[in-house]
Amino acid sequence: MHSLITVQTFPRSNGLHRIIRMEGDRMFGKDYFYLAFGSMIGIGWLVSVPFWIDLAGSVGAIIAVLLTTAIAIPIGFAYGELTASLSVSGGEFAYTLKTWGRLPGFICGWFLCLMYIMILPWVAIAVAVLISYLFPQLDAFPLYTILDYPIYLPHLLISLLMVFLIVYMNMKGVKYTKIFQNVVTILMITIFVVFIVSGWLFGSVENTHPLFSPKGEVNGILLGIASILFFMNGFDTIPKMMEEANQKIKRSRLGWAIVGTILAGALLYILIILASSMMMSPGQMDKLGDLPLAAAFQKATGSSVLSGIVIFGALAGVVTTFNGFLMAGSRLISSFSTAGFLHPAFGTQHPEYRTPHVALWVMAVFSMFGILLGRGVLLPFIILGGVSLLIAWFSVSLSVIRLRMTHPEMVRPYKMPGGIYMGYLAFVLSGSFLIMMLIPGTPVSLGKVEYSLFLAWVVFGGMIYFFQSKKRLFSPEKKSDEGMS
Which Pfam family, any one, appears in the UniProt record (predicted)? Predict the structure, then answer.
């Protein structure tokens, strides 16, 4: 650790605070890539890839990934330009607050808070599911059942222990969490290579049929896109961790790290789909339990050892997802508080480690509570997480357009290809999918439960916004151009 201490100051009007941090505790470009990539690739591939193949067919699923990537790339360009150009912390929330004002900033940040506090317990539960697949004897001592999902005591203990350990590690500072994220992500990628190569060696091209969904090629691909879109999430962790950036980092690399994460994730998903589709036909895979891809892999290779290695890789992915989202979500809540939208205590920094320790423990409490409720209760909230993600993407698209129009002279270390027109494309793509999810009757629209929860979250947010405004916990928005030069 270097002895040099630096001071980084962010404008108070943008919900960001003065922080002091050791240079050795900062993040570099590779750290941001591993953060984002590790957050993107979790349990989704093991559970959802068979679902994507079943929806669209083997070739149809690959086309769905390519089209989803085409949607995410313009949005990634917008993220890259804002992340490299604005010296603010808080990600999409901070960009929206700076460019559009308090109410739009609050809406963006409020829904992002929902996404982070709900996805963490879901991921923590997945850890116990994976470990119990390796050790079936852990499916014992059932405590209760909620919505047909039994809650086992060993599962609870595993999930709660994982939450406590990772939250405690995050309390100690980014020096430890970035090393952990980097090492486990590299391990995960290595195991992915084992899975892909084994699938090609032990699989058969005959299993790839049907190439397209028999229910209709277009509908199958559209449904595949709607599902895959959420699994492209993860690159958004980079802008939320900007207060941890090393002072010597080239800002342009942050933009490329965001776009590179999307491309690397898409390539990995395509390779996994190819390997998975060769192992077993979708009709056979559907009958193999909660982790059909793992069971199909073991049956195709005939090796329980290789299957165990793949499960361990999935477990590594789940842990990096939890760690990455915890890092990003805690910074979001801290910035959201510092902007005056939550009680100031939520933005408190640890006196020794300079980490958002209150926000970390708040997320830990929500995670533990969600674990107790189980997968059945959390599922509608996870679906709402997709809406929250699209709201964030839509907000970033609007912000990058406005800054292009109002501050054309702003220094942009990383520039979107195509300029403002790329911003318009990101706006149309994110807005279109957001509308499709919110309007009833579309192939990807919300269900009745999700609509009810969405309205409840809007009403609750309105009450919070009104209450905080009345209490005057934040100062009026200043028309500041600080950080735009």
Answer: AA_permease_2
Residues 6+ apart with CB under 8 A from 69: 232, 262, 263, 266
Pure H helices in 135-214:
153-171, 174-202
Phi-psi region of 99 (alpha: psi -120 to 50; beta: other; left: phi over 0): alpha
Q: Are 297 and 311 in contact (CB under 8 A)?
A: no
CA 159 vs CA 129, 163, 184: distances in Å:
9, 6, 18
List alpha helices for 339-374, DSSP H.
Answer: 357-373
pLDDT category of residue 288 using cuts at 50, 70 and 90: low
Are 145 and 118 in contact by the 8 Å Cβ rule? The answer is: no
Cβ pair 69, 372 in contact under 8 A: no
- Give domain limits for the chain: 24-436
Q: For the chain, give percent helix, strand, coil, nearest 5.
A: 75, 5, 25
Per DSSP, the residues of 5-20 read EEEE---GGGT---EE
More confident residue, 474 or 62: 62
Give every CB contact of residue 100 below 8 A, 6+ residues apart in sequence. Answer: 395, 398, 399, 402
Could you report the per-residue pLDDT of 21-55, keeping only the tens digit for each?
444 467 888 899 999 999 988 766 777 888 888 88
Q: Name residues whose C-beta falls within 8 Å of residue 201's C-beta, 6 or more positions apart in sequence.
A: none
pTM comes to: 0.86
How many Å apart are CA 409 and CA 485, to the nearest integer?
A: 8
CA distance 339 to 97: 9
State how far the Cα of 192 lies from the Cα of 344, in Å rounded to an integer.
43
* pLDDT grade for 211, boundaries at 50, 70 and 90: confident
**pLDDT tens digits for range 406-429:** 999 999 999 999 999 999 999 999
Query: Which tokens belong to 181?
Result: 């994220």
- What burial class does residue 165 get, using C-beta atoms within 10 Å of its C-beta: 0-12 exposed, 13-18 middle, 19+ buried? exposed
CA 425 from centroid of its chain's CA atoms: 22
Cα gap 314→334, rounded to integer Å = 30
Q: What is the DSSP letter of 444?
A: T
pLDDT grade for 307, boundaries at 50, 70 and 90: confident
Q: Distance (Å, rounded) from C-alpha 52 to C-alpha 227?
A: 8
- State the DSSP string of 314-337: HHHHHHHHHHHHHHHHHHHHHHHH
What is the rounded CA–CA span in Å between residue 343 and residue 382?
26
Q: Would you state the structure tokens that stand for residue 385, as one six-digit string?
A: 């997480």
Q: What b/e string do you get for 281-290 counting C-beta neighbours within 10 Å, with b at 16 or more?
A: bbeebeebee
